[in-house]
Amino acid sequence: MDSRTLCLGLLAQGAASGYELKKLLEGPLRHFVDASFGSIYPALARLAAEGLVACTEQAQDRRPDKKVYQLTPQGRLALLDALINLPGRDRFRSDFAALMLFADLLPVRHLSELIDEKLAEQEAALAELAALREGGASLPQEFVAGLAAAMIGAARDYLDENRHMIESHALQNVVTPSAT
Amino acid sequence: MDSRTLCLGLLAQGAASGYELKKLLEGPLRHFVDASFGSIYPALARLAAEGLVACTEQAQDRRPDKKVYQLTPQGRLALLDALINLPGRDRFRSDFAALMLFADLLPVRHLSELIDEKLAEQEAALAELAALREGGASLPQEFVAGLAAAMIGAARDYLDENRHMIESHALQNVVTPSAT
DNA sequence: TTTAGAATATATCGTATCGATATAATCGGT
DNA sequence: ACCGATTATATCGATACGATATATTCTAAA
User: Looking at CB atoms within 10 Å, which of A59, A76, A110, A161 has the fewest?
Assistant: First the structure.
């Protein structure tokens, strides 16, 4: 999903500034969608130029000016259109998994540390997702959070139960052959 | 993981041409890593210029020329270095999940179709991964395939059991309000 | 049999995106 | 008093994706 559609979709749930959109994307949603400032601001500017969002500049008291964007009727139509013509396959990019593929090049100690870190990261993400579901989220958000939790939980369990596989494999080459 | 490191890592398991690397990435590995021709060829060219891989041009009989790349000792060191200084967090980008977030904008019929398609896609991926594990793969590949299977399987089960949640939610707005 | 399409093989180009950085004011803590 | 975090917008370089171009050969259907 391109940043344009993403911005439109988020604005469909309420007006917001670019900064606020970015903050939204740093929450539990980040497991499935994201966009950087470098994508959001140009996207909003272009959407505004095309009349798909309306921009209201709000001079704040003791804060920098805030540009609040809200969806126009044309914007809502464009969003609907984009959502329907959106096949876009899922893409999971994992440096961790890539490292596991190259496990026989790494010292076991390092490998074990990586797995420990990954497990801790997963526990933290699961806790955050559980909190989201307790403290009222919208139903679609809850649904998506549940999906994330299911996948992360499965990955954690798998790692926990099968790490010995890869760790004993890496054990074969104990020390990386020294340079030159 | 950048294309450079990825190419080095793949070449560490054996010499190959750019085209062959791309084919590798279209297999079951694609669930975790990928790179396009537009990344692979420039990466290989730069690695060759830096002396991290050696290129041997092989004029083939009834095929276009093939440029076979293989890791040099310096390349192996560079790879090891890159792998160790590689934290890089995992990033899962899912248009499907994003669409679920915006479920209340979509007609239920469309939503149900999307879920059906996703389930079919997951079944296919699981079958492919199972086949990989039967027909001998290396241990790291088997490990990573298992991780992929665990996550995809969990997502499939969650979708199967919870789709009614999101489907009955979308039901509220039966028809998208007509244009203009 | 012809002919369309898939496969083998390399390469480039426009657009999109990330991550870092710049700027600027104010708030919170030590 | 001062440092760092927070709120807020914006740009820039490096990188990556996806589509496309080129050329040949193999395969399968019309």
Answer: A59
A62 C-beta less than 7 Å away from strand C: yes
What span, in angstroms and rounded, lies between the C-alpha atoms of B69 and B65? 13
Which residues in chain B are contacts of A102 at CB distance < 8 A?
9, 12, 79, 83, 140
Q: Which residue has the tokens 């891989």?
A: B53
What is the rounded distance in angstroms from the CA atom of residue A54 to the CA atom of residue A115? Answer: 47
CB contact under 8 A, B92 and A88: no
Q: How far is CA A104 from CA A111, A114, A165, A167, in A?
A: 10, 14, 12, 9
Partners of residue A151 in chain B, C-beta under 8 Å: 151, 154-155, 158
pLDDT at B6: 96
Judge whether residue B76 has pLDDT over 70: yes
Q: Is B174 exposed, middle or buried (0-12, 13-18, 19+ CB in 10 A)?
A: exposed
DSSP string, B35-54: --HHHHHHHHHHHHHTTSEE
Q: Name the nt closest to B40 by C-alpha to C1'.
A: D16
Tokens of A63: 């804060």
Eight-state DSSP code of residue B122: H
Question: Are B90 and A128 spatial neighbours (Cβ–Cβ below 8 Å)?
Answer: no
Positive or negative, the CA dihedral B168, B172, B173, B175 is positive
